[in-house]
Amino acid sequence: MATLPVYRWRLAPDGYATRRQLRAAGLRPGGQDVAAQLERPRRRRGPLVAYLYRIDRAKPVRPMTPARWAALAKANAARRTCPECRRDAGYVIPPSLGMCSACAFSDNAPEGASWNSSPHTVR
């Protein structure tokens, strides 16, 4: 197995790019293996690592078709729909709650209290 060339932060030669840099240029790795590695040293911890791909072997990003747009809209709508009350919450429901904030905090609060009320705050 061949080892990857390792470059220090900001010292990679031209012709290499990270996934984000490829995407910003309208490209994708296109199935190619990682060509090099970029390391940014840190104090008291291991270095940050970024994988580099060859730009000349990258392929253009596939265009979004109407079916892919529809699937993306359906997935985003599912992330906004509360499984308890089945309403659109107006925001992406956090996985930690698993439901909209109205459903998550409706049972725990005493009568007339809001979700951010505290006995230590002066009204």
Describe this structure in words.
This protein has about 120 residues and is an alpha+beta fold. About 20% of the residues lie in helices and about 20% in strands. The chain has three helices and six strands, in the order ββαββββαα. The protein has a four-stranded mixed beta sheet with strand order 1-4-5-2. β4 (about 35-40) and β5 (about 45-55) form a beta hairpin.
Concise summary:
The chain is flat and about 55 Å long.
List the helices and strands and how they pair.
Layout: E1 6-8, E2 16-17, H1 19-24, E3 27-28, E4 36-42, E5 45-54, E6 59-60, H2 66-80, H3 101-104
Parallel strand pairs: 1-4
Antiparallel strand pairs: 2-5, 3-6, 4-5
| Share of helical residues | 10-25%
Q: How many DSSP helices?
A: 3
| Termini gap | 68 Å
Strand pairing plus helix content: what structural class?
Answer: alpha+beta
Mean pLDDT: 87
Beta fraction: 15-25%
| Order of SSEs | EEHEEEEHH
Largest sheet: 4 strands, mixed
Task: Enumerate the strands of the largest sheet in spatial order, edge to edge or round the barrel.
Answer: 1-4-5-2
Labels describing this entry:
123 residues; alpha+beta; 4-stranded mixed beta sheet; two-stranded antiparallel sheet; 3 helices; flat; disordered C terminus
